[in-house]
Structure formats: C-alpha cells, structure tokens
Amino acid sequence: MLVLGVESSCDETGVALVEVSESHRSALPALRAHALHSQIEMHQAYGGVVPELASRDHIRRVLPLTQTVLQQAHCTLDEVDVVAFTQGPGLAGALLVGAGVACALAAALGKPALGVHHLEGHLLSPFLSSDPPQFPFVALLVSGGHTQLMRVDGVGAYALLGETIDDAAGEAFDKCAKLLGLPYPGGARLAQLAQQGDQLVFKLPRPLLHSGDLDFSFSGLKTAVLTQVRKIEMAGVLSEQHKADMAAATQAAIVEVLVKKSLAAVQVCGVQRLVVAGGVGANRQLRLQLNAAGATRGLRMHYPEVEFCTDNGAMIALAAAMRLQAGVASASMDYAFNVKPRWPLHEATSASLALSAVTQSPGAQLG
Predict the structure, then answer these.
(1) Which residues contact 223 (CB under 8 A, 6 or more apart)?
(2) Can you tell me the distance from the alpha carbon of 132 to that of 28, in angstroms, rounded to the nearest whole number?
(3) With CB atoms 3.0 to 4.6 Å apart as the test, which of 18, 90, 107, 190 could cross-link to 29 if both were Cys?
(4) Could you say which of 3.30.70.100, 1.10.443.10, 3.40.50.620, 3.30.420.40 is the CATH number of the domain covering 2-124+309-366?
(5) SS3 assignment, position 313
(6) 255-305, pLDDT tens digit by residue?
(7) What is the pLDDT of residues 78-99, one digit of tens each?
(8) Distance separating alpha carbons of residues 205 and 249, to the nearest angstrom
(9) Under a CB-based contact definition with an 8 Å cutoff, are residues 321 and 29 in contact?
C-alpha cells in the first residue's frame, strides 16, 4: 500500500510517499521519497509568517513537489492507494490548500483520502529514524507553536500530561531572538549565537520549574529578556557579546525547564523511553542534556532525523499509514473536507480522523 502525504499547515510545503508492506503488515512503513519547500526566505522581509502569502505559495508548490516525489519513487499517481493531508492544527488558509489538493487528487484517482493531525505526525516522526522507539513512551512535542508532554501507549492512544499555558518554547526562542535584533527565523539563530556566549552572565527565570505539575510557561522569560535588554540599552550599547551572552542564558533557561519537566513526566509514567519531536527537538543543547540525563537514569532517548524535525510531508504520510495499520482510522471516499486550525491532539485519540461529511467553506474556518 502506498500512502501519499501532503503537509501545508504553516510555512513549509511537504510531500512524501510511504509504503506499507503487504506481506509484513506489522513492519513499519518505509519512506519511498519526500520533497520539501521552505518559505523562510519569502517571509524574512516581514519578520514572520504572513498567512496569505503562505497560502498562495503552497498553491504554487504542492503539485510540482508531488511530481518530484513520484519521480524519485519511480511510480505514478495511479499506484497511490491513499492520499493523506494535514487536517489541523495550523493556519486555516494554508491547511485548506493541502486539504483541497489532496482531496481533489484522491477524487480524480478514485482513491480514499485521510486527514491527519499535524502533532501526531511530529509525535510519530521518530519512527522514520534508524532507531525507532517502542510503545509505551513519553513524548515531548516542542515546536514553534506547541509545547506538550504526552503519554503514548500506541498509535492513537495519547494522554496529555502537561502543556504550555502561554508561549511555547519555540515562540520563546523566536521572540527573544527578535528582542536581540536577530533576523527571522530567530530561534535557530539564537541557538547558534549562544555557542559564543556565557550563560552565567545574565540570570533569567525558569518559569514553573518547581510548580509540581508538568505544565510550561515561557512568556515570563521573554519579559525578563526584554527588561535586561532595555537596561543595557539605557546604559549604553547592546554589544555583540551582550547578545551572545543573553542568547546563551535564554537557551539555558528554556532547555533546563524542558529537560526537568520531561524527566519528571517519564518518572510519573514509569516508562523508560522519551521521544522528543518538533522543530525545537533539533536543538543541540537540548539533545546533549537529555542524552546525558538518559545515560545516568538508564532511559532511552529517541529523536527524528534532523531533516524531519521541522514540518514535512513524510511525517504526515507516516502517521496516516500507521493509523491505517493499527486500525484506528479509515480513509474516506467522501471527498467533502474540513480543516481544524485549532485541534488539541488529545481530542483525536482513539478516534478516526476520516474526513467529515460536511463541507466547510474557507470563511467558516476563521471563526
């Protein structure tokens, strides 16, 4: 069975093809080919993602990327068995592009379509790696818009343990980078600059570190960085060394909170595996500290390959294939579709993500 996956939730257009073995149905789906286009360069002039521009660019990119994937996999559209797409969460207009194209392709081919939860794609993305995890495990989903801890007992069996009550970790990276005058996208640039700084020069808070629960909060950290920057600017000039030291202190604060909360979640759940997924999961310091803690405590750490940390079509095709394999979803021949810009992952647990029978207009998605 071949599953074509389309990702268009924000500022990356991704398409991929995975194959489920008919003879070994218990085997993990195999990635046949994938292609990705990032809109970072387009959005840099605006200092962030412009939703309307993102949607228009998805329209231009998705079909050429599909052709590229099919060529790489040496197969044709007629050989595709299921067309999967990101149903949510994400930008409404961007989601509608992927959903519309995927359902149109499926209808033209007479093949079923399947909507996939974007965060489930991230959560399952380590199964594409050379060291895939085994159930059960705790997952730290950490990206630009989400910071969550989940207990994962199987495909579609997810329990929310804790989440951010304001800014996500990725947002904190990006917003603090902007305060330091770093260009978009700031998170990765802040992490790079932090290598040249001393994290002990500035004392920054670790919000909710000792809260006794597994929730996160990073808006206070952003405010603390803003206060420090203004103090320096009032006294003189924010030098490059100031920026490097502040970047190092910011990264250290975020990483410490993520590591300690993740380890606490593993202990609470009594499991021996931690999966870290999402864009921030590529952060070098986060991986180093988690690996060190895991070695001390006898825990297994699992990450997606770096190329699959950010949004991509491979994780969407994989999630669809794994849901079909596990029998927790059924693809639909009803090509009416909806998208869900706001869609908590725990609401999708143990339930089919098949397409809705009610078509919603683009305007209806913005409410």
Answers:
(1) none
(2) 9
(3) 18
(4) 3.30.420.40
(5) helix
(6) 999 999 999 999 999 999 999 999 999 999 999 999 999 999 999 999 999
(7) 999 999 999 999 999 999 999 9
(8) 10
(9) yes
CB contact at 8 A, 83 and 108: no
Residue type, 98: G
The correct answer on CATH 3.40.50.2000 for the domain covering 136-303 is no
Tokens, residue 269:
């759940």
Quickly list DSSP for 178-224: HHTTPPSSHHHHHHHHHTTS-TTSS----TTTTSSSS-B--HHHHHH
Element (H, E) at 247: helix 240-269
E strand or H helix at 277: strand 273-277
| DSSP string over 63-90 | HHHHHHHHHHHT--GGG--EEEEEEESS
In order, the DSSP letters of 129-147 are: SSS---SSEEEEEESSS-E
Domain boundaries, the chain: 2-124+309-366, 136-303
Q: What is the pTM of this model?
A: 0.91
